[in-house]
Amino acid sequence: MPDPAFAAEADVIVVGAGLAGLVATHELVKAGRKVHVLDQENRNNLGGQAFWSLGGLFMVDTPEQRRLGIKDSYELALQDWLGSAGFDRDDEDLWGRRWAEAYVRFATTEKRDYLHELGLRVTPLISWAERGGTFADGHGNSVPRFHLTWGTGPEVVRVFAEPVLEGERKGLVSFGFRHRVDELIVEDDAVVGVRGSVLEETELERGKASSRNVVGEFEFRAKAVIVTSGGIGHNHELIRRNWPTERLGKCPETMISGVPAHVDGRMLAITEAAGGAIVNRDRMWHYTEGINNWSPIWPDHGIRIIPGPSSLWFDANGKRLPAPCFPGFDTISTMKEILATGYDYSWFVLTQSIIEKEFALSGSEQNPDITGKDLKFTLKSRLAHGAPGPVEAFKQHGVDFVVADNLRELVAGMNKIARGPQLDYDALERQIVARDRDVANKYSKDSQLMAITNARQFLGDKVSRVAKPHRILDPKAGPLIAVRLNILTRKTLGGLQTNLDSQVMRPDGTAFPGLYAAGEVAGFGGGGVHGYNALEGTFLGGCIFSGRAAGKALGARLP
Known about the structure:
Blueprint lengths: L3 H6 L2 E4 L3 H12 L4 E5 L16 E3 L4 H5 L6 H12 L8 H15 L2 H7 L4 E6 L18 E4 L2 H18 L3 E5 L1 E9 L2 E10 L14 E8 L2 E4 L8 H7 L2 H4 L6 E3 L8 H9 L3 E2 L4 E9 L9 E6 L4 E4 L15 H9 L5 E7 H7 E3 L6 H4 L3 H9 L5 H9 L3 E4 L2 H11 L7 H13 L9 H9 L3 H6 L15 E13 L2 E2 L6 E3 L5 E7 L21 H19 L2
Helix pairs in contact: 2-7, 2-20, 4-5
Pfam families: FAD_binding_2
Organism: Nocardia tenerifensis
InterPro entries: FAD-dep_OxRdtase_2_FAD-bd (IPR003953), FAD/NAD-bd_sf (IPR036188), KsdD_DH (IPR014614), Succ_DH/fumarate_Rdtase_cat_sf (IPR027477)
């Protein structure tokens, strides 16, 4: 339980003990401020959703990139960001666009040093995530920018949690776990505190869905409140309510959850009721490569396959997806193609050779070698023959996987787990054989094969990420594998509109005194720094940048 005396003296209340909340608290502690941090979960969940992440960080023109021969710049990165964001709303995108320019500048200049000073390190191989569409000024990363944290999500959390916990020992930070905020207190047109419910104590492990039984009430006041409560990723009802049907198609009937149950979006409505502005409600970032976790931690627990570019992608009817709907290229375009069929799933068809080199699973728990910062284990698992252990476990136990020695058996297995039409063997074979004939030469008219050839020009992809082109039906590359891909809920791209100090705006365009927001609840900055699309590695970074802005602004501004 929090110390009532401390709570009464707190300069700032932070609502949410996830990454953005930790970053904001860290900056406030550096400024000598007293901070009271509230969270509806227990202490085991410190760091929130970020703990479960792969730890990817979007950074620009880094030493790691330059060592691999990548020529990157602020201008190129901003071109990619704006081409992907597609900002087209004068009022709702006003601050999002400003945040985008500021964030890309941060990612080019201060971000790496800021994190390095805290002790965070990245692996030497840079990944090329969200490669995008077909034009240089359109969606996607022109070059690899996905820097993988050595230690994945837990390490990103650690470098901010440790100084915050030190602040707790020094009497500058107090935590109120199992304290659910239900109301922002507004007096004289300013936010001056919070009210809410105390939930019953629990010792549940991190990520487990916890009780919502109320055992008490609370009210705390401070000079300012920072809302860092996360998005709506596990609130399927709210996702359905905000789903952009006209833009993406009908909301999927079946969705699996890439985030824990506590990612419920409650504070959005609570902050709006107090007078804060919410913008871009219809912008969200869900993945098309979701698979059911065979060993779940939270309800409807799904994992995303982070694929290399070689798997053949078919819709529910068995039709190969067109460019740029290749694995790892254009998430939103692929989502539209999949949902346009009237079904909410699709298929990868690949070989053992492809899965061994190209399948990675998103999540700290799915990458124990890198998460544990075990170099010997990492080298052994990544260079050994066969798929990485966690991938092989999904292949053996996952309900979405089919393995067969020939295509006819594979199609029969796919039809057993299909939620929609039965696939036609002859039609699938014809498409695969046509693609396989084009592998005979180093050049091709097949757009996906062109993309694979291009990817292998990058050393990082050729060495560790992209399989050598081969015929899918070549027995030497087998067995054949099919994966049923589900829609995986994940990120909220819209949210509370904020200025560059992370101060929440009101619907009339003025700043709301005493109220700040950071992280996913604020669309990672400005109510939608990503616009319609994300470039990957930008979610943790958005939490860091917006949390840092809130903490710095209040640290300098408060009397």
